[in-house]
Specification:
The protein is α+β, with helices and mostly antiparallel strands. The chain has one domain. The strands form two sheets. Strands 1-2-3 form a three-stranded mixed beta sheet, with helices on one face. A two-stranded antiparallel ribbon has the order 4-5. The longest helix has 12 residues. The radius of gyration is 19 Å and the shape is flat.
């Protein structure tokens, strides 16, 4: 509700800078865990226990990337609202992965097999 209120307060100011990822952990009981084996919660799972769910918003930063002023403002606002927030700094791999794929610079997200 606090995120929606923030956007309604001044959408032009707050429309950018929200964290990249939302992690939602459904608090399943032992019985529910046995009955529901899918790793993806159903709409019923999410809606029926949203007040007990654990939520984490994550901003992802790559090499040479830093938080913008707007991202910092959002993080401060979210913390003030009691939302769990994290910044994840991702580093390039130090070696070629086992699958033999290597990321190409400027390749439009394509990978080449070695």
């Amino acid at each position: 509700a606090g995120i929606c209120a923030t956007l309604a307060e001044d959408y032009g100011h707050w429309q950018h800078g929200l964290p990249d990822l939302i992690f939602w952990k459904h608090p399943a009981t032992a019985v529910e865990a046995q009955e529901h084996t899918s790793p993806v919660p159903t709409e019923e799972d999410v809606c029926s226990s949203s007040t007990n769910a654990e939520v984490l918003l994550v901003e992802v930063k790559g090499p040479g990337d830093s938080l913008s002023i707007q991202q910092t403002l959002w993080i401060e606002r979210l913390i003030g609202l009691g939302v769990n927030v994290a910044v994840c700094y991702v580093n390039p791999p130090t070696s070629t992965p086992e699958n033999g794929l290597e990321r190409q610079q400027g390749g439009g997200g394509k990978a080449a097999r070695r």
